[in-house]
Specification:
This protein is α/β, with parallel strands linked by helices and 291 residues long. The chain has twelve helices and ten strands. [3Fe-4S] cluster binds at residues 212, 230, 233.
């Protein structure tokens, strides 16, 4: 395996290094090059373009003018992707352009997408590409993908080349606040244990394909479980402006949960708001008062 970097903040490396099962995973890999782990080759040797790999991991946004060790990253990517069996676009920047696409859209993109538009250096090799979007990537998602490859198992993908096993769920699924969401009981601040964050804090959980609340971070928690709204970081349009607010038109959310017709959702919302769920409302009031 070779791990190379485009325009990146290194967050995906830091996430990967926190994988609980990292030692056993590394026992099944020949690490040809990694920026932080002991490897068979140095960056200087990798940029000579004289070796190859079965799995190429690319972290960060693609920039055709970026260099590593005075060699254009586009040439490094072209050489190693040519013979690799799999290319993993690691993180939202490598998958869709991410934050760096937002800052320099004329230069930065993902490997086969700029948001949802096919635009990138590996369009001709997209059958090899697996997008693992996230900002940063959940380490267990990378572990799952690498273990599937190591064990010669097929990795079924969605239409954005993301593993179905990891991205067919919504971040909303498994959220401990779902009962508050159903009854439209909102929390008014961050870090609260009770209440829904969809209306007041801009939570994108109902519209975001991710298994954060199914496969917990460090096997313990998730953003919504600690009182932070989902930012939708696995989706092609990340980052959006005003991350902490829900866009509304005449108090009606601009975006509604995936799979629910807007008219149906508004009808269900109107009905839910006619009820007073004292058990849930009381828990929210008690918590905010104590806090």
């Amino acid at each position: 395996m070779i791990w190379i970097q485009g325009v990146t903040c290194n967050a995906n490396i830091h996430s990967f290094l926190n994988l609980p099962s990292l030692p056993s995973l590394l026992d099944n890999l020949d690490m040809v090059y990694h920026p932080s782990l002991t490897s068979l080759h140095t960056l200087e040797e990798i940029t000579l373009l004289e070796t190859s790999c079965d799995v190429l991991i690319f972290e960060g946004a693609y920039d055709p003018l970026l260099k590593r060790n005075d060699v254009l990253v586009k040439n490094i990517l072209k050489h190693y992707s040519l013979n690799a069996k799999y290319v993993i676009a690691l993180g939202s920047c490598a998958s869709f352009g991410g934050i760096f696409k937002a800052s320099a859209p004329e230069r930065n993109s993902g490997l086969i997408f700029n948001e949802k538009e096919e635009f990138g250096p590996l369009l001709d090799s997209k059958a090899k590409v697996i997008n693992l979007s996230g900002c940063p990537i959940h380490p267990e998602w990378l572990s799952y993908t690498l273990n599937m490859i190591i064990n010669k198992r097929e990795v079924p993908l969605d239409n954005l080349y993301r593993p179905l096993e990891l991205y067919s769920n919504l971040a909303h699924h498994g959220c401990t606040r779902n009962e508050y969401f159903e009854w439209k009981i909102d929390t008014k601040g961050f870090g609260k244990k009770e209440g829904c964050m969809f209306y007041e804090q801009g939570c994108r959980g109902p519209m975001t394909h991710a298994s954060c609340n199914k496969i917990l971070w460090n096997e313990v928690s998730s953003k919504t479980r600690v009182g932070t709204p989902c930012f939708g970081c696995t989706e092609p349009d990340f980052p959006r402006s005003n991350l902490y607010s829900t866009k509304t038109n005449m108090s009606i959310p601009q975006d509604v949960p995936l799979g629910v017709p807007k008219r149906t959702y508004l009808t269900m919302t109107g009905m839910a708001k006619t009820f007073s769920i004292k058990r849930l409302e009381g828990k929210l009031i008690d918590y905010e008062t104590t806090d």
